[in-house]
Specification:
Shape: globular
Strand content: 25-35%
Radius of gyration: 18 Å
Bound molecules: adenosine-5'-diphosphate
């Protein structure tokens, strides 16, 4: 199994399950509420840990009750938090999620008032033990090239993946050096594309030379390998879509897991879509394996 470090968000998710998504300015009662660990990097690690990898998280956490809860939850999953930066005071990032039982859709209002992990913070992390480092293009996307240089210098064997969920300033310089770039469908649609193949074909190989992947919700995902070949997987829908929160993070974990086990990109793409589909059929990220 691989030693994997993920760098990015760990968040408190407050999930309200409603029968159907409410109309604006209406008042509805939640059928159930769950308060649980969330955030892209934390979710991906929660799945990778279940798949048997040795996992660690780096990011910023606020030393207040919610932040301590986030860290305790990561640790309870066997995810090391030593590489993370503790901030005395501050406020933990929180996602307020409305989960529709009718469709499984999740509508998210996110609040964050906490600094991002800077390149200087990351340079203090000992990355030598890791076989794989997964980064998130967050508002500090301009720091990504420096973070990648730190990994290449101190853990030359490590493979590097970068998740791109939204357009970020300075991001274009960070796309060149990762081994794998994972784009969200939202990002591709924001660039004007109507399908993942068109988006991936539209990327300049000189700007994004590594493996490129793009997810597309219930339409599955596509990828382009190092030789420029396109691969496609359908989605694998569960009998009933219950909860799509973290489907993309689960997909990313499935892809990293398969590539870390030296499976081909085509196999990894399908394995990731199967795992993400299974996730959509259950609430939360536990018990996936
Ligand atoms: P995100 O969670 O980041 O919005 P997507 O919605 O693109 O990401 O979903 C990521 C992956 O999860 C998809 O590529 C697909 O394999 C799987 N997935 C998402 N929604 C469904 C669904 N309704 N049924 C089956 N699989 C799904």
């Amino acid at each position: 199994m691989a030693a994997i470090l993920a760098v990015g968000g760990a968040v408190l998710d407050i999930v309200n399950v409603v029968a159907a998504y409410p109309a604006e300015d209406s008042e509805v009662r939640a059928e159930r509420q769950a308060v649980r660990l969330g955030g892209n990097a934390a979710n991906t690690l929660a799945v990778l840990a279940q798949l048997g990898h040795r996992c660690a998280w780096s990011g910023v956490w606020a030393d207040e009750p919610d932040g301590r809860r986030i860290v305790a939850d990561l640790q309870a999953r066997g995810i090391q938090t030593g590489p993370a930066r503790r901030l005395a005071g501050g406020k933990s990032p929180t996602s307020y999620i409305t989960l529709s039982r009718a469709t499984g859709s999740r509508t998210i209002v996110h609040h964050r008032d906490l600094p991002e992990l800077s390149a200087a913070d990351f340079e203090a992390v000992d990355v030598a033990p890791y076989d794989w480092v997964h980064l998130e293009a967050r508002p500090n996307a301009g720091d990504i090239p420096r973070m990648i240089r730190h990994v290449r210098r101190h853990s030359p064997r490590a493979r590097i993946s970068l998740e791109v969920e939204k357009a970020r300033e300075g991001l274009e310089h960070g796309l060149h050096d990762p081994d794998v770039v994972l784009f969200s469908g939202d990002y591709a649609r924001g660039q004007g594309y109507a399908d993942p193949e068109g988006f991936l074909r539209g990327l300049d190989p000189a700007t994004v030379p590594g493996i490129k992947v793009c997810t597309w919700g219930s339409a599955g995902a596509a990828a382009v390998d190092n030789a420029g070949r396109l691969h496609r997987t359908p989605a694998f829908p569960p009998a009933r879509v219950v909860d799509t929160v973290g489907a993309g993070d689960t997909f990313n974990a499935g892809l990293i897991d398969a590539l870390a086990r030296a499976r081909s990109l085509a196999e990894a793409l399908e394995a990731a879509a199967r795992l993400a589909g299974r996730k959509c059929g259950r609430e939360g990220l536990d018990g996936l394996t």
